[in-house]
């Protein structure tokens, strides 16, 4: 069984699914409408009240998760924790509350996971489709066919922020609605042309907000009874008649949805106008289903991160032979160093493959350029934290170790850095060596054993070893070499 937890700007939500062949059947769902996005103050800090509400929800979710025999759990956070200035301070307490690591994903990765969730429910490998997802703090547009994604983009506009900006006191007027729609259109107008260049057969709305709008239209017999622009105009008119959020009385609309429905409707109408779309289909699928699908793929060794790394290698025409050589040697040395867990094993291999990517910018300081590129690139499947870790390994593969800012205190990370540096040293010295031809240990000090004849056969090896001894000494770690 697998579990996905989505820490959204509107709600915290949880899905637990059971694998049924290639499909996933949902056996448990939970939702807490805590409005985390509304808990940001004017300086973009989460308030104490918002933090406490989030921690209470996460603790409750932990109880639910503990009741199931789970094979995998992923907790992902979206826009509010992407932009909150105190997110880093909040995360340790949040992770303790739910009992699992929390991954803050980029808007583009959020879009890809949303599409994966939609595709896993729809199937239809030949269908080309546009997916629209309006969250509390961001909106994602994705075009793809089957499970393949052609284009994804995240826009920093959502239901919570838009409702507060244009309906701050709960009053609903035609003027406010028109301004909200116009503002929404301005957010999308520059990005939409790239989508219009692509053809799609169907349009789907995957978010809870879109489903709530569709439900209100159907259950209250508004417009043509479908999720069309005409029906949205009718819903807009009805909301204006109510005049205030406190007076909204629509069949099927929960009170917690009513508070932000105006912002969500304005965003949806704005993006549909820009996309020239008149109708779409609401769908009970999205981010959480995508996370479950991604967990399933990782369990079956179809990890999207592998494809991302290979794509990066190809995009920048890196020497695949050198890259694979370093990655293989580094992995072998890391195994010799006997880390306490395999937490860095795959990241070390990927950083070995990508260690020279910065050379497309400049040979001088290429490790710094590579680190920046990896941390800031759009790498499908990777979380922000995972990219930062890859970046630090690439940054630390040569030169002084001070730039790692104390990360060597993590013994397993220090071993990964050492393995990568030794692999690069062997490659630069042109030593045709397998990892098991080197002997290395790292406890209170580093002990490296090399063949006696290597120093004679490889002129620069002594230089590189001497520099390594100096750099590790600066980090407070003795480096001993034996022949």
Describe the structure.
The chain is α/β, with parallel strands linked by helices and 483 residues long. It has 3 domains: 103 residues, ATPase, nucleotide binding domain (Nucleotidyltransferase, domain 5), CATH 3.30.420; 180 residues, Exopolyphosphatase. Domain 2 (Nucleotidyltransferase, domain 5), CATH 3.30.420; 180 residues, Hypothetical protein af1432 (Orthogonal Bundle), CATH 1.10.3210.10. Helix content is 49%, strand content 15%. It contains 20 helices and 13 strands. Strands 3-2-1-4-5 form a 5-stranded mixed beta sheet, with helices on both faces. Strands 8-7-6-9-10 form a 5-stranded mixed beta sheet, sandwiched between helices. A hairpin with a 4-residue loop joins β6 and β7.
Notable characteristics:
Nucleotidyltransferase, domain 5, 5-stranded mixed β-sheet, PyroPPase_GppA_Ppx, 483 residues, pyrophosphatase activity, alpha/beta, Hypothetical protein af1432
Helix content, binned percent? 40-55%
Number of domain modules = 3
What is the spatial order of strands in the main beta sheet?
A: 3-2-1-4-5
CATH homology-level superfamily of the largest domain:
Exopolyphosphatase. Domain 2
Uncertain ranges: none
* Strand residue content: 15-25%
- Biggest β-sheet strands, sense, barrel: 5 strands, mixed
- Overall pLDDT confidence: 89
DSSP, total strands: 13
**CA-CA gap between termini:** 52 Å
CATH class designation of the largest domain:
Alpha Beta
Structural class designation: alpha/beta
CA gyration radius, whole angstroms: 26 Å
The CATH level-2 architecture of the largest domain is identified as 2-Layer Sandwich
């Amino acid at each position: 069984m697998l579990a996905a937890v989505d820490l959204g700007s509107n709600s915290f939500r949880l899905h637990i699914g059971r694998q049924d062949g290639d499909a996933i059947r949902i056996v448990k769902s939970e939702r807490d409408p805590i409005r985390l996005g509304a808990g940001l103050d004017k300086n973009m800090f989460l308030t104490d009240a918002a933090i406490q509400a989030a921690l209470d929800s996460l603790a409750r979710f932990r109880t639910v998760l503990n009741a199931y025999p789970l094979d995998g759990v992923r907790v992902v956070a979206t826009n509010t924790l992407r932009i909150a200035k105190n997110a880093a301070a909040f995360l340790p307490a949040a992770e303790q509350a739910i009992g699992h690591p929390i991954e803050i994903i980029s808007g583009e990765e959020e879009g890809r996971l949303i599409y994966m969730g939609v595709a896993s429910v729809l199937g239809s490998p030949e269908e080309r489709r546009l997916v629209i997802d309006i969250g509390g703090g961001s909106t994602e547009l994705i075009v793809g066919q089957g499970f393949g994604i052609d284009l994804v983009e995240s826009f920093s506009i959502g239901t919570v922020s838009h409702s507060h900006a244009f309906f701050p006191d709960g009053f609903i007027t035609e003027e406010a609605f028109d301004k909200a729609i116009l503002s929404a259109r301005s957010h999308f107008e520059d990005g939409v042309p790239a989508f219009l260049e692509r053809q799609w057969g169907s349009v789907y709305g995957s978010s809870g907000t879109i489903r709530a709008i569709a439900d209100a239209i159907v259950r209250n017999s508004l417009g043509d009874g479908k999720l069309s622009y005409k029906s949205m105009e009718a819903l807009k008119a009805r909301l204006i008649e109510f005049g205030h959020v406190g007076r909204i009385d629509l069949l099927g609309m929960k009170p917690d949805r009513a508070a932000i429905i105006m912002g969500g409707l304005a965003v949806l109408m704005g993006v549909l106008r820009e996309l020239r779309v008149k109708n779409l289909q609401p769908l009970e699928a999205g981010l959480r289903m995508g996370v479950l699908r991604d967990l399933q793929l990782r369990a079956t060794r179809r990890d999207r991160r592998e494809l991302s790394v290979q794509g990066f290698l190809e995009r920048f025409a890196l020497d695949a032979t050198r890259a694979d050589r370093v990655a293989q040697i580094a992995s072998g040395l890391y195994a010799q160093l006997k880390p306490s867990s395999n937490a860095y094993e795959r990241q070390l291999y990927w950083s070995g493959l990508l260690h020279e990517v910065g050379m497309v910018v400049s040979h001088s300081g290429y490790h710094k350029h590579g680190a920046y590129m990896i941390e800031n690139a759009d790498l499908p499947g990777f979380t922000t934290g995972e990219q930062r870790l890859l970046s630090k390994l690439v940054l630390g593969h040569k030169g002084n170790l001070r730039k790692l800012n104390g990360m060597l205190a993590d013994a397993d990370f220090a071993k990964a850095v050492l393995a990568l540096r030794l692999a690069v040293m062997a490659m630069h010295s042109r030593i045709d060596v397998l990892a098991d031809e080197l002997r290395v240990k790292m406890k209170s000090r580093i002990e490296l054993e090399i063949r006696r004849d290597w120093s004679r056969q490889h002129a620069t090896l002594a230089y590189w070893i001497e520099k390594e001894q100096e750099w590790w000494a600066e980090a407070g770690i003795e480096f001993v070499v034996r022949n």
